Protein 1
Amino acid sequence: MPRARALARALARAVDATARVALDGASMRATCARMPTKPNDARAVATARTRARAYSVGQMVHRDVPEDNSTMTWTFEASVRPKVDAILRRYPSNYKRSAMIPLLDLAQQQNKGHLTLAMMNHIADVLEVAPIRVYEVATFYSMFNRQKMGKLHVMVCGTTPCMLRGSREIEKALEEWMGVKKFETTACGTFTLGEMECMGCCVNAPMIAVADYRNGVEGYSYNYYEDLTPQTAVKVCEALKAGKSPRVGSQIRDKAEPIKGLTTLTGDPPGPFSRDLDQIKADVDAAAAAAAAAAAEKK
């Protein structure tokens, strides 16, 4: 009987799961049927439904526009070609596709913040792969942007440690200071306010990352600013806008040391024990010489 009851419960769960899948499928079909066919209307619906989600790439489906369409061509600048060649040399010639992410990053730097269809097509030619392989990567990773960005892309960390330490307040302060909402660009084209998931500096939460595209490949930088408050986050952006170089990393301490300062290891740490190899060699040589002398005396 217990076995029969267990089988009955398992069957009931399977039937319930099947029903949920069928319901989800019907709901999806109904949603698709309701979606408008005009591009502008579709964008409006997508914006309304995804406003709370962080699509850092900005555009998951390509749409031809005058500045980004399938008739355009693109290539790496002559000054950038040595970097392209250096990247390709890292990999065997039959594994060139391994260079896809570094080349996409380099192309985005050259284009000052975003990738176009022509850029992805050119990288596909360089790597000798189908263009769809490049499209897949460029639309999967949030570090690649498919829409034009500001000269400075400010990304607020939205993961739990930073959120608990006040990242939402920082985001609100930056929205008010820039005069834009998240994922929007200022009218002057200087800033784009974005969001990024965990950047690996939880001990110094909250933090922002800033990608600086103002000077193309040669001047590109990607820096972290940590231990922020709404006020210090705004000050960092004010300094960047003024062309200054604000302090990178923690704004209140040295790296990730305790806020109240060190309480242990306050002096110079002792070096690790290591033998004096020169002295060892001298001792061995002396012992060998003594043994040779003793052997000579016996003769």
Protein 2
Amino acid sequence: MENQNSSPHQKPWYAPLVHFLAHTVVGSGIFIIIATPSVFLGWLVHKLREYHVAEFTLSVLTFLEHAILVVDALTFLSFLGFTSWAAVKEMRQNGH
């Protein structure tokens, strides 16, 4: 049975770093896309306050703004953690 780790084309030493960088860039883009509604809600609350909208409505919108941003940030940080771990495992596998 052939060894699955041996490959006729050895990956370069920087391949795990490139994978990590690509995942980080894409993940950052997704983070920004998901965080955009949170920024919009912050702006909306600011504008609605000028029109003397009920404080309860403003509180609910502010809570949603913060909830979206916190969940997005935690998801992004966990994504970076998993991606970092995958890069470390890939470097160990390739003997780098």
Protein 3
Amino acid sequence: VPRCFGVIQKITTEEHWKHFNFATRTWNSRRVNNKETNNSVSFSLVSPESYVPDVYVKVQTPLEASGSILERVYSKVRRAEEGVADLVLQTLSGEKPDAVVENEEMLRVGSSLIGFGEVVLEEGQVAKLQAPKNGRQYILVSSDYRSFMHRHEASASMWKMLTAVTGITGTALLAGAVISFFGKQDRKSK
């Protein structure tokens, strides 16, 4: 894409083919030949409110980070062209090309990001954000800190509520089974 500059680029190409199912007499689609190319450079996170231009954090190996930070900048679907010879071959082989989908996603220069990872002081001068050595998650997100934390707190609250409901339901079922069992024992003894 012209005049589009970024620090992370991901290009994916997928071929979509249709295969004929002779039992149901229908064409089923599937993806084949998925190709993905990733390009990245190290970049720096700078606070937009910072009055000191020397304060920044350098992001190392951004492709190792999880999180959805890429923006789709290009997408194209090219349909397969069919001729008479192609139709004959497709009938004999039972498969035909349908389309090629090309997508380009990019983290543009100047995008707003928040990073979670291990911050290391390199050579006593440069702060560097990298994947933690203890195997914890390394995250780059394109939202602000408050919305990221709110989303995770809401998810944790939902799981707490689900755990409580499951526990109460299990306790009620177990209590019902115990009462039913001892009720039958009392009736048999009388």
